[in-house]
Write a structure and sequence with these properties.
CATH architecture of the largest domain: 3-Layer(aba) Sandwich
Shape: elongated
Number of domains: 2
Largest sheet: 9 strands, mixed
Bound molecules: ligand BES, manganese (II) ion, zinc ion
CATH class of the largest domain: Alpha Beta
CATH topology of the largest domain: Aminopeptidase
Number of helices: 14
CATH superfamily of the largest domain: Zn peptidases
Helix content: 25-40%
Mean pLDDT: 97
Number of strands: 20
Distance between the termini: 30 Å
Strand content: 15-25%
Structural class: alpha/beta
Length: 479
């Protein structure tokens, strides 16, 4: 999808030839004398357009306007969240088989965050996954022109948002693919392809190299699958070599059956999304290549399947992680922390300014926070604050959770340095406490995206979260 930004007032918008024109109305609007303004004023006065965010009024070939369809959409006070809601319902109302060119016009002056929200919401509302359809019927909308009162001032924000969309959609594509179309090897291929873009390099390690590094925890998860594991190392170089990088670590379990501690059959297909953390790292790199910011970023993806086999790890097995710590695997379904802990140890070699891991780690996090906010855990207040505010700015929210040492009690065992599970209570936190043992050498944050990475039910599909949050955080870190 192609986004453009232009300076448009309502009178200019009324002359736009397009398949659909969405007019975003806020309570701050002072309607002028043009046709569109009069139409809006009438609709509001008559109560046909309610002044509530998300309410819309659709018109067909309205007299005096050059568009085929117009949708008046109320965006409340004009906050980012309200604009997002308005754009989503207006795109749904305007969606038809032949809406190729769409114009979204802010009827009143707007700010950075609402503009960003409009771009991301327009993309979201029109996204279609087609890779595994025999007769793909992809997205119909080809061009989206966003009209604002001051396009030159908003251009940098707009470019960021358009790049975020590219990254979000790259992440969605990979997360949505079923496990047989997104094996560890194919994920590595996607990372390799990214290395063709500016400033990106990619290196992929296989079983032999991973064995040599001593990643016994990661290997333990992979050993039950016929698909060989991959350890993906991506680098984005936008600043001097001497500048410490931010390291992003994405959980890349391309399918999680639970292993010998097998999951129930219902909804098990959704465990193809268990590499959403990895997909978000790929998405961030895709966007970085577009924006070329002056920062350094490393992406680490431990990718493998968690399956059942004669060679699978068994409950009670003890393995040695790359850090040297031994781990008793009491539940083979707590595999995410096993692949991540070795990647976290590997991250030490980059002497990072910060390490953020992103993982669909626990069902407990879904129970705690649902699908609205990702769980945020951090040993560093400054890093936590930066991630929280990046989440707010990008409408990709997270919520900080505790890391009291008392939560680690349940991880104690008589048979190894640490156990990989600690009972049901506080499951998202005990998982984070496990990871924390591998993060002593750098400021660290962990995003549990189990509830936010995909939607279930009729709308089943990847959300592309938290690409927007991570990008916002990384781009702000240059200031
Ligand atoms: N990938 C799952 C977490 C998950 C479950 C995400 C459901 C989204 C929806 C993870 O590997 C897992 O299985 N975690 C276990 C941990 C438990 C065994 C301590 C869980 O949450 O049940
Ligand atoms: Mn699992
Ligand atoms: Zn998992």
């Amino acid at each position: 999808m192609n986004f453009e930004l232009e300076t448009l007032d309502l009178s200019a918008a009324s002359k736009q030839k397009c398949d659909a024109l969405i007019v975003l109305i806020t309570s701050h609007l002072k309607p002028g004398k043009d046709v569109l303004s009069l139409l809006v004023a009438q609709a509001l006065k008559a109560g046909d357009l309610q002044a509530k965010p998300g309410k819309t009024l659709a018109l067909y070939r309205p007299v005096g306007l050059a568009c085929v369809r117009a949708v008046l959409a109320h965006a409340g006070e004009g906050s980012a969240h309200e604009v997002s809601r308005a754009v989503k319902s207006a795109v749904a109302a305007a969606k038809a088989d032949n809406v190729k060119k769409l114009v979204i016009c802010f009827a009143a002056a707007t700010l950075d965050a609402p503009l960003r929200a409009a771009v991301i919401a327009a993309a979201e509302a029109s996204y279609v996954f087609t890779t595994t359809k025999s007769r793909p019927q992809g997205r119909v909308i080809e061009r989206v022109l966003i009209g604002v009162s001051n396009s030159s001032a908003l251009k940098p924000v707009f470019d960021r948002a358009a790049a975020a969309v590219t990254g979000i959609e790259f992440a969605k594509e990979w997360a949505n693919r079923p496990a047989n179309h997104a094996t560890p090897e194919l994920l590595a291929g996607a990372a390799h392809a990214l290395a063709k873009l500016p400033n990106i390099k990619c290196e992929v390690l296989g079983p032999k190299q991973v064995h040599k590094l001593g990643m016994g925890a990661f290997m333990a998860v992979a050993q039950g699958s016929q698909e060989p594991l991959r350890f993906i190392v991506l680098r984005y170089h936008g600043a001097l070599k001497s500048e410490a990088p931010t390291v992003l670590v994405g959980k890349g379990v391309t399918f999680d059956s639970g292993g010998i501690s097998i999951k129930p059959a219902a909804d098990m297909d959704e465990m193809k999304f268990d590499m959403s953390g990895a997909a978000s790292v790929l998405g961030v790199f895709r966007a970085l290549a577009e924006l070329k910011p002056a920062i350094n970023v490393v992406g680490l993806i431990p990718a493998c399947e968690n399956l059942l086999d004669g060679r699978s790890i068994k409950p009670g097995d003890v393995v040695t992680s790359m850090s040297g710590q031994t781990i008793e695997i009491l539940n083979t379904d707590a595999e995410g922390r096993l692949v991540l802990c070795d990647a976290l140890t590997y991250a030490e070699r980059f002497k990072p300014r910060a390490v953020v891991d992103i993982a669909t780690l626990t069902g407990a996090c879904v129970i705690a926070l649902g699908g609205v906010r990702s769980g945020l855990f951090s040993t560093n207040d400054e890093l936590a604050a930066a991630l929280i505010s990046a989440g707010q700015a990008s409408l990709d929210l997270c919520w900080r959770m505790p890391l009291d040492d008392d939560y680690a009690e349940g991880l104690k065992t008589n048979f190894a340095d640490v156990a990989n599970v600690a009972g049901r209570a506080g499951g998202a936190i005990t998982a984070a406490k496990f990871l924390q043992r591998f993060t002593e050498k750098f400021p660290w944050a962990h995003l549990d995206i189990a509830g936010t990475a995909w939607k279930s039910g009729k709308e089943k599909g990847a959300t592309g979260r938290p690409v927007a949050l991570l990008l916002e955080y990384l781009l702000d870190s240059t200031k």
